[in-house]
Design goal:
single chain; about 75% helix; mainly alpha; 8 helices
Length: about 230
């Protein structure tokens, strides 16, 4: 019975937070689609060159850079100190996205490494207790569920800090980069920054919601396993 109550409470939390954060995938895509800003962004170098120039601005040129045409999103891999850039050439969002990943590369390495190691341990923990529960080999399920929730909250707070820090600063780095390059008029730069602000207004809240959504889904999955097994 307690697992049913937990599931219902978590679903209610997701619904409430979805309303509060205004999470809407369609709206995010609409804000990211702006042909006028896309045209301005075409003036700037290709993704690899832009990434190198950002890293020079940040005095951090020892980062490996790779462009992956199959990747759905760009990311910074802290353990190998590498930025993987997705094949996004047409959208104006690339200017801020690349800045975002470059900013990850200068974040506190203790936090970066902790996030990488801890997130993998957390995933393994979730898989192990789920498998043991399926085969009825897990005693004290509520205790392991409590550990899962507490561990998930630690993961959420660390990951959300890293993402929020990079997302907030990326807007300013992108603006400084465009002003330094002098490939656009100040009016065009202001239009681009306004586009970034609109995107971030939705994107930052959505990122935090998705991180919490993934955590809650794992907890719900474990609760369902405990119910049926």
């Amino acid at each position: 019975m307690e697992y049913f109550i937990i599931i219902i409470c978590l679903i209610c939390i997701l619904i409430i937070l979805k309303y509060i954060f205004g999470y809407n995938v369609r709206k995010i895509k609409q804000v990211a689609e702006n042909t006028e800003l896309d045209g301005i962004a075409k003036k700037y170098p290709n993704n690899i060159e832009m990434c190198k120039e950002y890293l020079e601005m940040l005095n951090n040129t020892n980062v490996k850079i790779e462009e992956d045409k199959t990747a759905t999103s760009s990311l910074y891999i802290g353990i190998s100190n590498k930025i993987v850039i997705s094949d996004v050439k047409e959208s104006f969002t690339r200017i801020q996205t690349i800045a975002h990943e470059c900013l990850h590369s200068i974040q506190d390495k203790k936090i970066i490494y902790f996030n990488f190691i801890y997130s993998n341990i957390y995933i393994v923990y979730f898989l192990v207790i789920s498998i043991l529960a399926i085969f009825k080999l897990l005693p004290y399920k509520m205790m392991f569920l409590t550990i899962l929730i507490m561990g998930g909250l630690i993961y959420y707070f660390v990951r959300s800090y890293l993402e929020n820090d990079a997302m907030i600063k990326a807007r300013f780095l992108a603006k400084a980069y465009m002003e330094q390059k002098k490939l656009s008029t100040q009016e065009e730069i202001n239009e681009m920054v306004h586009g970034f602000d609109n995107l971030n207004d939705i994107g930052i809240k959505s990122t935090n919601y998705i991180l919490l959504l993934n955590l809650i889904i794992e907890i719900i999955i474990f609760c369902v396993i405990c119910i049926i097994r």
